[in-house]
């Protein structure tokens, strides 16, 4: 997995450089384990990854209330005082999370995140751990 993190560094940097006001980028598994990070320290990335696991689970529960969908979370955007948080599905059992300051162009961020996921989604997938069911 170390090699995978190294290979993702330039792609995450490209996202951060391409969208002004990007603060932190974290790639995580569905169970909240950090797979890669950019623009943040390891402790912050680990906290964000853990929080994202709960958030994606909550989003999936809400998603099941829609009669014509499969309940899978695609994108969550949260606006808080000071900025925005984005969580996007990025492959089977993998997610891309971004924190950005208030001045971020929300449309540009969503577009660039979708582009990144489309390019590397298969590389971001994580297999289920022993005993886990596939979501």
Automatic annotation (TrEMBL):
Xref: Pfam families: Robl_LC7
Gene3D superfamilies according to UniProt: Dynein light chain 2a, cytoplasmic (3.30.450.30)
Family annotation (InterPro entries): Mycobact_SerProt_Inhib_Rv3364c (IPR053141), Roadblock/LAMTOR2_dom (IPR004942)
Domain Roadblock/LAMTOR2: 9-100
Protein name (Swiss-Prot/TrEMBL): Putative regulator of Ras-like GTPase activity (Roadblock/LC7/MglB family)
Species per Swiss-Prot/TrEMBL record: Kitasatospora atroaurantiaca
